[in-house]
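Entry for the shared binder. Reason: the reviewer on the internal report wants the predicted structure included alongside the sequence.
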Amino acid sequence: MERQFFHFLLLNVVIGCSVEALNALPKCVRIRSGRPDDELRIAFTMAKELMNPLGISHENNLLVACDVNNSRELIGWAQIRSIGYAGYSTDPDRFEDGDVSLKSTGRRAGPSKLSMEREVDDLMWEEFEEDPTPFPNGFASLPWSKEYSAASKAADDRLARRKELLQVELDNTPKLWELSSVYVVPSWRRRGIGSELVRQVLNRHVANNQIGRDIYALTLAKNLNWYEQFGFKCEEKVPEAMAFEMTAGNAITKLIGEQLVCIRTRLR
C-alpha cells in the first residue's frame, strides 16, 4: 500500500530535473486533447527537430499544451500510441499473460496475430461443418434458387461473425504502448510543461482502462533521469515494433554525439 501511494505521488508531482525546473504549470498555459488540425503542425515540428514525425494522431491518447487565449498556438505535446500486443512479445513472461486466452473460442493463441486469426478460422470451420444449411448442388446452385440464396446468406453471416469474433479478441488482448512525440517549444521549456503533459497522458491511459499497462519510450540517455520520475527504466529488449525507429534514431543521434535508449514503465 505504501509503495502504491508513493508511486501515485510520484506521478502527480512535477519534479525538477536536468530537462525542466520545478515549476507549476504556467497560468497562461492549458492542456487539451489533440485535434485533427494539430497533426500536421506537430509532424512538421518533429521533423525539423530530427524526431520521428510519424504516427501522430488525435485518435491516439494525444495531449497538447497551448496558450489559454489561443488554443491553436501549440506549446508542447505528448501522446501514447499502441505498438503491438503484449501477449505476442518475444519476452512474454514480463506481461500480464504470456499467451492470450481467446475470449470467444476458449483456446490459447500462439506467438502472432496470425495465430489468433487461425484460431478464429478453426472455430468458423467447425461452425460451417455443423451448419444445417445444405450446400447447393445441380439446379439448386443457380443464383436464383432458394437453396443458393440460403447458402449465400449463411456464408455472409459467417464472414460477419468471423470479423466480429476477431475484433473481440483484439479488443481484449493486452497491448504494448509507446509514449512518443514528447516535445516542448524551446522558449517554453523549464516551466514544468513537459512533466505535466507526460503526467496527464499517463494518467489518462489508466483512466481510459486501456488493456496493457507497459509503456515504452525512446529518449536520449542524458534525459533518462527526467523520465525516472514517472517510473521509467532502461529496457534492453526493444519491442520489434520499435526496432526500426531505434535503429534510425541511433544513426542520427550518433552524428551529434548522443545515445538513444529504450525505456519502459508499467502503470498500475
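Summary line for the report: Residues 101-171 form one domain.
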